[in-house]
Each structure stands twice: as C-alpha cells, then as structure tokens.
Design goal:
The complex is a heterodimer of chains A (about 110) and B (about 230). With about 110 residues, chain A is mostly helical. Helices cover about 85% and strands about 0% of the residues of chain A. In chain A, helix 2 packs across helix 3. Chain B has about 230 residues and is of the alpha/beta class. Helix content of chain B is about 45%, strand content about 15%. A seven-stranded mixed β-sheet of chain B has the order 3-2-1-4-6-5-7, sandwiched between helices. In chain B, strand 2, helix 2 and strand 3 form a beta-alpha-beta unit. The radius of gyration of chain B is 16 Å and the shape is globular. Classes of the chains: A mainly alpha (about 110), B alpha/beta (about 230).
Chain lengths: ~110, ~230
C-alpha cells in the first residue's frame, strides 16, 4: 500500500469514528456515512477502478472524476443546508416573536 | 375617514439606549401616545431606559434583526386594534413632526402605505458618498421591485390596517425594506411618497449602513427570491 492510501484510509476511519459518536440516534445518517466510507476505501485501495469508470464517462483520470462528482455533491449539500438554516431561522423568529408579544406590556 | 383613528408608532431598537429616550419623548410631545418599542435583544435592556414613560415595550429574547423587530411591532399593534401604523427609527434620524404628513394620505384613503423620502424634502448634511450610494440603491430597487421611488431605504412609513394585514415580513435583517416594496407591488397597494427630513448626526452617521451592508442586502434579496 502506498503512503497516500494509508493516509487517506486513516482519514476516512477518523471521520467515521468522529461522526459515529455525534450521530448516535440518526440511523439513516450513519448508514449513509458507512456506505460512502466503504466506497471511499474501495476507490482508495483500487484506484484503477476509478480510472476505468472515468474513461467510460469520457474523463481523463479517475481522480478528476471523483473531483467533479464531489463538487456536485458539495454544491447540493450546501444549498440543502442553507435552506434548512433558513427554515430554522423562521422557526426561531416565530418563537421569539410569540414570546415578545405575549410578554409585551406598558411600562 | 376614521373618526379618531388609533395611531401606533413602532420603533425597532437595538442598542439605541442613548437616543431612545429623547426619541420617545419627542413623539409624546407631538401627541402620540401609542408607542411600541421593540427591543431586538439589546445588550442592555432598553426597558430600563424607558421605565415609567407609559409606552409598550416588547422584547426579543434573541437578536433577530430590524425587519423581524418591525414585524413583531406591527403584529402587536394589529392585535391592539391600531388603525394607522407608523414605522420610526430609534436613532434620532427621523423628525416626529413629519408624521402628520405621512398619515394624511392614509386617513383620506388615497394611499395604503406612505413612504417618507429624504430626496423629496430637504436633507441636512448629506455627504456625497452616501448620496451616490443611495441613488444606486434606488435604481437597483427599481429593477428588483418595480417601484420607482426616490428614497428606497427610509425607515419612516405610514401604513393602514389593510397593508399590515397583507404584510408578513420574512426578511429579518436589512433586506426587509426591499421586501416591503415587493409586497406593495405584489398586493397592488396604493402608495405615495412624501418629503421628510432626515437628521444626520455624528452618531447616526457612524452607526449607519456601510457600503458592505448594501451588498449584503442585495445578497439577501437574491436569496429571498430563490427560496421563496
């Protein structure tokens, strides 16, 4: 195994362990995390696999394909997260407003 | 025409403890008794500065933004049965004697919402930089909202119940001013501008919007449209 492979696999394992604790109850999230991690380890151990898939897609290198796909996925996740944050802000606003009006008085 | 209309002044306030007392005092001197101050999570509760002044004080337990504080004040006043709603700044930039001019078109039914404009009236000590920035904001606002106004970001307005009932501000921060314009267009509300005086003191200049705020507002509006 090359150095980069050892480094990356260690990184994946750390990420999994780190989030495993935080996502204790979120079964779906853990499932997604584990599947993606296994895929990542697979591609790390068999880089030629990514190259073959890349060639089918018309992309030069496997690493480039992984890169392109990652950007797409990040983009999607970021927009989804932002939308969630907006919803949260709306909820917080409703709660803060309701309390302000309820507790409002003449001073 | 409403017989003895109930007029509510809504003042969103965040860390304006120094100026809020004189602002409220000036309003009371001009005969307005229904004043609603919305403390948007100030570090020092504004309530302390206003104790005994016979005004309504609402408090946001967390800082949400001027737009959110305004909406809270509007909702509260609606529940109180207000007929006319005035939005007024807490930093002393606005002149209480202008309110009469703003209320008139609302009372005689010629407008649902009246905006104060510093460009229609005379402004004192308007710096060149701010003047250009505001003119740019005016043009961009026209592109975004379809309303051709001389002063797009002025905090002094008068609204009737119809306007307030239609208004559900979702922009918590500074983009609420543009959201109001968009809602006016969307609900085909009758609107007018009247000249008002804006007083730029050293205090308000230092507190006022920086150029970066303008860009942030644009960003907020863009996202608002995207996530409608």
């Amino acid at each position: 195994m090359s150095n980069i492979q050892i480094f990356l696999i260690t990184g994946v394992i750390f990420v999994v362990l780190f989030f495993f604790n935080r996502l204790k109850k979120a079964i779906l999230d853990i499932l997604v995390l584990v599947i993606l991690s296994l895929l990542a380890i697979l591609f790390i151990l068999m880089p030629d696999l990514t190259n073959r898939i890349a060639h089918i897609m018309g992309v030069g290198r496997g690493a480039d394909l992984v890169f392109y796909l990652s950007i797409l996925i990040f983009w999607f996740v970021i927009i989804k997260l932002y939308s969630k944050i907006r919803k949260l802000e709306e909820t917080i606003t409703e709660l803060v407003r309701a309390e302000a009006i309820r507790e409002g008085k003449k001073i | 025409m409403i017989d003895k209309p109930s007029i509510y002044i809504i003042i969103p306030a965040y860390n304006e403890n120094e100026t809020i007392q004189s602002v409220v005092h000036e309003l009371k001197q001009n005969g307005y008794s229904n004043i609603v101050v919305v403390d948007d999570g100030s570090s020092n509760p504004i309530r302390d500065s206003l104790e005994g002044m016979e005004i309504y004080c609402l408090e946001h337990k967390a800082n949400l933004g001027q737009g959110a504080a305004l909406q809270t004040g509007l909702t509260f006043s609606l529940l109180q049965g207000a007929d006319v709603f005035i939005t007024f700044d807490a930093d002393g930039q606005h002149d209480a004697t202008d309110i009469k001019k703003l209320i008139e078109p609302v009372l005689n039914g010629s407008a649902d919402i009246v905006f104060g404009s510093r460009f229609l009236g005379k402004a004192m000590d308007l710096t060149k930089g701010r003047s250009i920035l505001l003119k740019m904001a005016k043009f961009i606002n026209y592109l975004l909202t379809g309303l051709d106004m001389t002063d797009a970001h002025n905090g002094i307005r008068a609204l009737n119940r119809k306007s307030v009932e239609f208004l559900h501000l979702r922009e918590n921060r500074m983009a609420h001013a543009s959201e109001i314009l968009m809602e006016v267009k969307r609900h085909h509300l009758k609107w007018k501008e009247v000249p008002v005086t804006i007083m730029y003191t050293d205090y308000s200049r230092q507190k006022g919007q920086r150029s970066t705020e303008g860009i942030k507002i644009l960003f907020d509006i863009f996202l608002h449209k995207l996530f409608k």
